[in-house]
Amino acid sequence: MNTGLNRRLFLKRTALAAGAVSAANLFPVPNLLAARGPSDKLNCALIGCGGRAMTHLNEIVARAGQNLVAIADPEEKRHAEVQRWLKGKEQDPAKLRIFTDYRKLFDETGKQIDTIFIASPNHHHALPSLIAMQMGINVFCEKPVCHDIAEGRRMRAMALQSKVATQMGNQGHAEEGYRRLCEYIWAGAIGKVTETHSWTNRCNGGVGPRPPVQPVPTGLHWEEWIGPSPYRDFHSDLHPHSWHGWFDFGNGSIGNMGCHVLDGVYWALKIEHPTSIEVEYIRGGSKERYPTGSRIRWDCPARGDMPPVKVYWYEGLNATTTEAPYGNLRMARGDARNLPPLLLELRKQYPEEELDGGDSGTLYVGEKGVIYTATYGDKMHIVPWAKMRETPEPPRTLPRPKNIFTDFIEACRAGRNDTAVSFDYGTRLTEFAVLGNLAQQAGEGKKVEWDGPNMNVTNMPELNRWVKPEYRPGWRV
Questions:
Q1: What pLDDT does residue 16 have?
Q2: 91, 424, 433, 474: least CB-packed within 10 angstroms?
Q3: Contact of 242 with 249, CB cutoff 8 Å
């Protein structure tokens, strides 16, 4: 990192220190004043070291050649995995600072950290992001960027105040498909869009009561894993991946895939706040778990010259119970209620088209035609391809960033905050997606009326506890 960047970071921290409070009342204000020493590389820390974190390691260390100085994960075996991975990467694993609690990571190494990468479960996204931004540290956080709506709004406000670089891990937003989609829709290629249909085969929900209590696995620091969420004893069907299906920790299939699949809908159609959200069909779930399949509708008002639009979401296409009676259903085989009828019609009409019905995708229904995109915006085309070839190509008006990690790292090094998926956009998209969770909690056929500007469910106030939940002492956001 050059000394010009050090100077900008120092001035940024000095400005923040005048008005910022220590994160969660855990960290002293002097950490905000720390300037970085001269270096050619960013000093990076990683929170959450399993699963998606390996992609982070490959991108920030192996590919971009930055320094990994600290990690935090409540499971000790993950520490050893990262250390083994670092061997042969021109970094000494013995020098890596290791923590089971990211609050201590910030307290002890915050002065040395330029950038934090967060790949933890959803309920641990907001707090470390807020701490980092308060300390003037750049933040890359996996999608969904927050667990609930109030968190997202606080993160957006803090990003605006801190002016650090922020990025939500939503790779499709930086790629060609969704950018071309926006250009085609904004040019009127299919006329005004009045409805969309998005689907995924992910089934991050469950059935049955909470499984019996079990001993905490050796090396897993359970208090740190629970973090800000309501305490519960350890049980199966939760760690390391099935937390997605529980209200207290994840956001179901929408949280897992909505920020990818609904990105084009939210962006191209310039959506702000829906007026209502309703589950039209639901399968499985419980008072604590997300459903194993559902069909959800967002009703969005007119925006400028764009007409009102109905946004549909179908999830859980191919589910089978993997372990009864506490199984987390991952795959609802043959359930037509979880596939858009229009998709089935188009696949029959155009059998040669690449219209995947078994993964994820979206159909955009306009006055003059239909556009299809796959999970991350790829395979974008007007259906059928013959019509796409006959349609004049609109000009390329949107910038084409490099891949999402390179885009973020370059912004950090240059002291910029104009990343491809900054928290300003990422928190808005996440809010739109997880409004579907409120509808799932309301139940089938119960329309949730949403006052977006005031962040309030107006007709079922009991749902507002999920808009802004309470956190455990010591972990308050």
A1: 46
A2: 474
A3: no
